[in-house]
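Protein Record: Sequence and Backbone Structure Tokens
======================================================
Scope: a single protein chain, as residues and as a discrete description of its fold.
Tokens: labelled as protein backbone structure tokens, with as many entries as the chain has residues.
Position: the record begins directly beneath this header, with no further notes in between.
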Amino acid sequence: MPSEESGLRAMVVAGTPFLDLLEHLKRRAGGKLSPGGFLRILQEEAGISFTKTRDILEHFNPGMDPIASPEVINERWRVLLAGWELDRQ
């Protein structure tokens, strides 16, 4: 059985839309995910530095509920992942 870490990394590599990824992380955390916890998980499990992901937090309230449209959030995520892919190569 794959570990949670490898499962998250596989989701990121597959380009899972951000809001789907966030819902997965919230379920894993029992419904409560802080912005800091989110940044830590992405850095530790997916290898994406918090300096790259912290800007996406401007689209969420402190409870990690979206305050921007899903299209805006997911586009921001696609751009971030494109840069991440370049960094990995």
